[in-house]
Amino acid sequence: MPTREEVLAELSKVKGPDLKGDIVSLGLVSDVFISEGKVIFSITVPAERAQELEPMRQAAEKVVGKLAGVEKVLAALTSERQGGAGTKTPPVRPAPAAADMGSVPPPMQRRAAHAAPEQAAKPGVPGVKAIIAVASGKGGVGKSTTTCNLALALQANGLKVGVLDADIYGPSIPRLFRVSGRPEPVSGRILKPLEGYGIKVMSMGFLVDEETPMIWRGPMVISAITQMLREVAWGELDVLVVDMPPGTGDAQLTMAQNVPLAGAVIVSTPQDLALIDARKGLNMFRRVDVPLLGIVENMSYFLCPDCGGRHDIFGHGGARAEAEKLGVPFLGEVPLDMAIRINSDAGTPVTVTDPEGTHAAIYRDIASKVWAEIERNREGGQRAAPRIVIES
Ligand code: ADP
User: Fold this and answer.
1) Cβ-Cβ contacts under 8 Å for 223 (sequence gap 6 or more)
2) Does residue 83 have its Cβ closer than 6 Å to ligand 1?
3) 285 or 76, which is more confident?
């Protein structure tokens, strides 16, 4: 395997935008991640020039691909936002966490304030009609379980569905859908997604060892997600459901900016604490002008398997009240139930294993509301295009 220095030496042969300098000395190359024959990095470009600079990205992949021991090169173009006065800047390049992550070059954007047209900054994925994110303010609230059952419920409602597991720090979609294996290339760099219960799924869990993604930080995460979004043969889909990484940090914010989202679903538990986190989640999407499709209250109440009684052990109802207060649709309540847990963890989600059961009905109802919101937003028109502003 080449060293990071050898990779950078090759990359310094690639000319920068406008054929000035080279991408390494211009400080455009992110951390270089090298693992088992794979070399992964991103190149920072102004958002509005991403399409035009595609040949530069390809040239970078080509030179690195020639190094001995390199089997696969994943290079992605990323863009960053510099905060202006009064804006909290999302620093997209936090300090590297592992020794092999190397130094982090300064970002390039020192440009005049410039609003990029949405199409250039966030082109859609051909064949995919709508991309939605499932997010939560913190981990462990059932975000992935909700993503999985929501996707299956959307399918049960007659839609063609795919799932992109962007929870790169803990990809659980392969387990939830009970799929494993390596995605095969279909042509060039395009990978064929795997399939679970009739749903096309793509996850970093298929591409790298379980522990590997844990050391990734900002730009690497964004490169990986961008590639899973754009270099996968999703085919014709009504909706692609993205399981976001938990939390509302910079990686999530940048992702929300980079993925052309039709909307976001926020998952929360009823506890106050989680609601505060959920509010952060809502605000994150609002900041980047992504429509909020609604809030799901998970582990909302406990249905006693013995007496059949319903127990509001967690102070259920918090999410509904919060949703009303915030003017966001309330999508539904999912009970805390061992059947949901056991089936999620076993890769036999309730929506397919017990389609006639009460849980499946709840998820289908949530799915109908989500889809209705997407349609309503669509009809409501050609919303003002979200803008990514790159400021000096
Ligand atoms: P997150 O993606 O927010 O980290 P997960 O979906 O992985 O959360 O869920 C965390 C744990 O809680 C898992 O073991 C899952 O099976 C369980 N879980 C999620 N939702 C429910 C529910 N409604 N009832 C019981 N257990 C649940």
Assistant:
1) 30, 40, 41, 42, 74, 75, 76, 78
2) no
3) 285
